[in-house]
Amino acid sequence: MRRRVLAAGLAGVFGAALSGRTAQAATATAPPVRLDQLKLVSLSHVNDPATTNVFPGDPAFELETIATIPNDGYYLQFVREGEHTGTHWGAPGHFNTGQPLADDMDPEDLFRPAVKIDVRAQSRRNPDYGVTIDDLKAWERRNGRIPDDAVVVLWTGWDAKWGTPAYPNTDADGVLHQPGFSIPAVKWLIDTGRIGRRGGTGTDTFSPDVGTDETYTVSKLVYQRHRISLEILANLKALPTTGAWVLAGGPINRRGAGSTATIFGVLPPGVHAD
Question: Hey, what's the signal peptide range on this chain (predicted)?
Fold first, then answer.
């Protein structure tokens, strides 16, 4: 069943890419896709204790070598981290009691069509920028409607700041200054079905919330039903504006809030980075 779901999803993307339609409009008659025709791009940072920025209050990321080939015949590290260290995905129960946790999610929840919204210019001018409904509508006028149940990814430029104090961008009072979604924009994405039941948001910052909003209202809205958030994404230059999918893979912990993840952009034939 899971193989059929994956194959159907990929065939839909392939058909949409050939015809110029969105993935939402692709039909079951789309040509089958050969898996070796897909291109994968990594959207994950490498976790390194020397460079990994952690959200204020989260445990430090630590690696300890506990076995070496000369001494033990094999090499192994002990890893200490929060579930949301580095590039990661979050489950609805991360912010909402009673909502699905990592082991309640379906495989297809972690494989979704994706669009990329480039807000680097706005974010350079204002690190507290909140993406608006007008921004999303302007993007759709240029690129077409966001597919239903998609992951809407913000490219703020923060991926280039990773591993430096400019990434958390905290002020003297410890307040984060990072761009994100405005509350009305996320409500619009939910109400119109664009992030639907099992879509979500993505960002190269710590969170879909504007950093100064310590109520986490955007996160509480996104993290419901089977929606996810992909956070601390890297290499967003390699993710096309539209036409790609995202695939999140990581350990599924019992009652997990999500997990540190290797997140891939999946590019079907004919879809290329900008």
Answer: 1-25
Unique residue bearing structure tokens 């100064």: 212
Is the four-CA dihedral 60, 61, 67, 70 of positive or negative sign?
negative
Token duo for residue 244: 């790609």
Give 99-160 as a DSSP string.
S--GGG--GGGGEEEEEEEE-HHHHHH-TT-EE-HHHHHHHHHHH-PPPTT-EEEEE-SGGG
* Single-letter residue type at 114: A
Which pair of structure tokens corresponds to residue 97? 């009691």
Answering whether pTM is above 0.70, one says: yes
Write the pLDDT tens digit of every residue in 130-154.
999 999 999 999 999 999 999 999 9
Which amino acid belongs to residue 129?
Y
Assess contact for 239 and 274: CB atoms under 8 A: no
Q: Note the pLDDT tens digit of each residue in 82-139.
A: 999 999 999 999 999 999 999 999 999 999 999 999 999 999 999 999 999 999 999 9
Which token pair is 200? Answer: 């979500």
8 has pLDDT over 90: no
Token pair listed for 71: 């001494």
**DSSP class per residue in 242-264:** SSEEEEEE----TT-SEEE-EEE
Task: Please give the Cα distance from 180 to 256 (Å, whole number).
Answer: 24
- Give the SS3 label for residue 200: strand
